[in-house]
Design brief:
There is one protein chain. Strands 1-2-3 form a three-stranded mixed β-sheet, covered by helices on one side. It has one domain. It is an alpha+beta fold. The chain has two helices and three strands; from the N terminus they run ββαβα.
Length: 69
């Protein structure tokens, strides 16, 4: 996996939730989102602006379940 640097001015932009069908990613980090998309990362943008006001992010607000097959 390639390491992609976050954009300057977006120090919290590395907080993302990787899933098999894409990456859940905050809409607030537009410059880093563009960089990720340019590298072929499929983003599912979500508005977590209210959560970010309390220093939260997509990973700390997620419940992950593994489906039984």
């Amino acid at each position: 996996m390639e390491c992609i640097q976050v954009a300057p001015g977006e120090p919290n932009a590395a907080n993302a939730l990787i899933l098999s069908e894409g990456v859940i990613y905050p809409v607030a980090h537009r410059a880093t989102a563009r960089k990720l998309e340019q590298h072929g990362v499929r983003l599912r943008a979500v508005d977590v602006s209210e959560v970010m006001k309390a220093e939260g992010a997509v990973t700390c607000c997620s419940l992950i379940f593994h489906a039984e097959e």
